Structures are given as C-alpha cells and as structure tokens.
Amino acid sequence: MININILIVDDDQDIQRLLENYLKKLEVEKINFTDTAEKTYKLLNINNLKSDPVVDLIILDIVLGAENGIDICRKVKTNPVYQEIPIIMITAQKESEYLKDAFEAGAMDYIKKPVKKIEFMVRINSAIKLRKETKARIEREKELLELSKKLKKMNQKLEKMALVDGLTNISNRRLFDKTIKKELKRAKRENDPLSLIMIDIDNFKAYNDTYGHQQGDQCLKEVASVLTENTKRAADFAARYGGEEFAVILPDTAKKGAVKIAEDIRKEIMELELEHENSITADCVTVSLGVSSICTDQEIDQQLVNSFIDKSDQALYQAKENGKNQVVYQKFE
Fold first, then answer.
1. Residue 244 a catalytic site member
2. Rounded mean pLDDT of 47-76?
3. Which residues cross the membrane (predicted)?
C-alpha cells in the first residue's frame, strides 16, 4: 500500500478544519498543517537537497497574511526533492489574476474559495492518484537500479571467474593470451624489453599416479603460490597455461632479470619439499623453466606472439632434454 501524506498551508483555522474533514474521507495517511512560510520550510526540510520528500501533496493558500503563497511554491519547487510533489493553490475569486504566476511557479492545479466539497474532492483525489502513480514509478526505478547494480556486480564476478583458473586461483590461459599481446604492444611502444618464462612441473604424471589427483591438485596450488610470490610488481603476470604448465610475463625485464626470477622460482619450489618418490629427477617436486626475452619494433601480430611463446617453449623443452630441474634461456630473434 502506498501511503499519502498531505500538507495544508493556510493561516485560516476554519479553512484548515474544513479541508481536514474533507481529506479524512480520502485515502490519506497523515495531514500536516502550517500557517507561515517559515514553518512550511522547516517542516519540509527545504534546505536538504538529498532527503526524501516529507509530504506527497501540498495544498497552499495563495495569500498567507502578508506572505505570498506563490513565492512559497516557487521556493519549494527549487528543491529537486519536491519537483514531482503536486502543489494545489487555494485562491479567492479576486485573486485569479495570480493564477498565471502560480502555474509558472510550479503549481499543478487550483481550487477557488469558497471551497466546494465535490470540486475539492475530485481535484484532490486526482492529485493523490497522480502522486501514487509517481511514487510507484519511483519505487520501480529504485528496484530496477538496485537490480542493475546487482547484475553488474554479478557480471563482474562472472567475468573475473572467466579469467581466473578455478583450481589455482591465478590467471588462466584466456587472460594470458590477452595479456601477452597487450604487453608486447606496450613494450614496442615504450621500447622496453619483455620476458616470458614457461614453467613445467617435472614428472607430474608420475606424481599423480603415485599420490592421486587430489594431491596433484594441491601440488599445482603450491606451485602457483610460488609464482605469485615472485611476480610482485603491478605489471608482472602469472598464469596457469594448461595442465601442469605455467607462464610468467615480466614487463620491462631483460635476460639477466628474467633468468634470476626463473632461478628463484625453481629454488623456492624445491624448498617446498613436496615429496615425489617416483621422480627420476629428485626426491621432491621440481620444475623446468624456459626463458626468452624480446625487444622489437616489428608489428605485433598473432604470428609474432606465437613465435615469442614458441621460443620460450623451445627453451623449456631444452631444459627438459638437459635433465630437468633447471633454467634455460633462448634469445628471441
């Protein structure tokens, strides 16, 4: 149910009582009374531009002693809170020349004195109906706005989920593909080096066969955490590339810095001391790493992106061929 609160602004108590009796026959929650401009502004909290309106309909005498109801109407309507609140002017016949000014000030309608019950009831009921429709619309708009915010938040969450590996909680292959191309373009634009580390867990199939897939998943998480620890700069990027393979993108990093970070990663994974009794490399989990760096003025197309990734993959393959648990660097040319 939509509640309606009404304000009667009139300095004639007999008129106040008469209008109150009429209004009690309509669907009105509360009737307020003021008899001066000052009291009206205070009740309406007119200087607050952010609060909800105090009333839903204002019945305003066009003359309040020495005060002008049109000026009150105009000031009320300057507050955005009250721009949609209907104001109905009460006027004596001799004041009809003021009606044009009243409408220009924001009044919606007028009722002549002496007030006739039927006319009053019809006009007020029409204003109440309009206000209820307006309040219902505003409420729907609020609900739609709230729903829109929830949907936006949900979409952002879904978008993030689509770019994050569900197991390790680091970036996934999809985001890697976007990021490597973006960083290559940035490196070319700023004439900076860019390095890529491809990482593969040694003998991972044997690890899964020995300890089970659940423990294998935990191993992947532990490796991902080491990568996160070693990609501390804002632009550094670590991702799960697929299966037991990971990738690290290092902007503004040349060979020396990239090889050091790769070696740090290799050592820290060994320091995890994840038992691997069936490894042919060591008695704990180890990784092989392939590193490549680029500084180019070539066009950054998909062919160049693929070639850069392939070069790091070739370095990784060489590390595997050389006995695993090591870092191999190959220059991109």
1. yes
2. 88
3. none
> Are 223 and 126 within one domain?
no
How many other β-carbons are positioned within 10 Å of the β-carbon of residue 189?
A: 9
Q: In terms of Cα–Cα distance, which of 72, 76, 82 is closest to 90?
A: 72
Q: Are residues 241 and 130 in the same domain?
A: no
Report the CATH number that the domain containing residue 223 is assigned in CATH: 3.30.70.270
In DSSP notation, 250-309 reads EET--HHHHHHHHHHHHHHHHHT--B-TT-SS-SB--EEEEEEEE---S---HHHHHHHH
pLDDT of 255: 96
Which has more confidence, 18 or 93?
18
Please give the residue range of the domain that contains residue 208: 173-329
pLDDT, residue 158, reads 83
Is 135 in the same domain as 11? Answer: yes
Asked if 255 and 301 sit in the same domain, the reply is yes
In a domain, 261, yes or no: yes
Q: Which amino acid is at 130?
A: L
| Stronger pLDDT, 67 or 291, i.e. the higher one | 291
Higher pLDDT, 1 or 315: 315
Q: What pLDDT sits at residue 113?
A: 86
| Residue type present at position 136 | A
CATH code, domain carrying 72: 3.40.50.2300
Among the listed residues 67, 141, 244, 275, the single catalytic one is: 244
Count of domains forming the chain: 2
Distance in angstroms between the alpha carbons of the first and the last residue of the chain: 74
Residues 125 and 191 in one domain: no
> 291 with 327: CB under 8 angstroms?
yes
